[in-house]
What does this fold into?
Amino acid sequence: MPRNIHNTEGKLDCDGMCHDETTCWPDWVPKAARNYVLHDEGQDPIRALARASGAHASTILRQIRRIEALRDDPLCDAGVQRLARTAAAGLGTHSVAEGMTLMTTTLAEVLPSDLDIEREGRRVLRRLNEAGACLAIAKDMDRAVIVKDATDGQAIRTAVVERPIAEAMALRDWIKGEAKGRIHRYHITAQGRAALRRMIAADEQARGMPGQGDGRIAEAPSAARERVAAALEELGPGLGDVVLRCCCFLEGMEATEKHMGWSARSGKIVLRIALQRLRRFYDSQGSWSQLIG
It folds into this structure.
């Protein structure tokens, strides 16, 4: 098959692949994964990749070997295959302009965008950072689920994650798991927690929350605790307890009713009243009202 021609400044060269990272690859794709795909699928020599990225050949080789080792993990392997399929779409007999357009369009259709990763990362990592939480997925599943052990010993589902998002998180080393049996389980890593902290800090700064006028990010946790304490104090005993157990601890309604000594199905009524008052409280706090979704 004829090979396209482009240079390493964003135009197609003899490998038929796109090296312009800002145009063709979303920023979330790790450089190691990009180089692995270019070497494994595009047959780019390691030295050529080193010259294009301004790194030593041994550095590129270590990146390639690292990604190769990660392919034992089902989500990482699927993520690499997804990258390879989108990269292969740029190969063929297209002109330079056609190749660039096809490559960018295909990536947009198949790979999550940087905005997707930022938005979903906040949601998913928050859930995985809870005690006893893990992401579970099977080979034939289009979506992963996040489950968490409840106080009554039962596992409850707290979130659903699209497979491409889960693959991207595994490639970024935000989650890591064990490939045992049909269901694979993943937990948040130190890198995942660090990414979550950066996202939360950025959100706090963007919102201008109390404790962030001087940019002291370290004050965000104490400010958050103060906001929760103020809300629970406003609700008072009973209403505050049901909100804390159901919304913060994700405790099931039956377990809450049993713990509080309430009759069956009465907890839903109490929770509804509590949430209505909680909404009014946050509305009265001005900018805090955006914390209620």
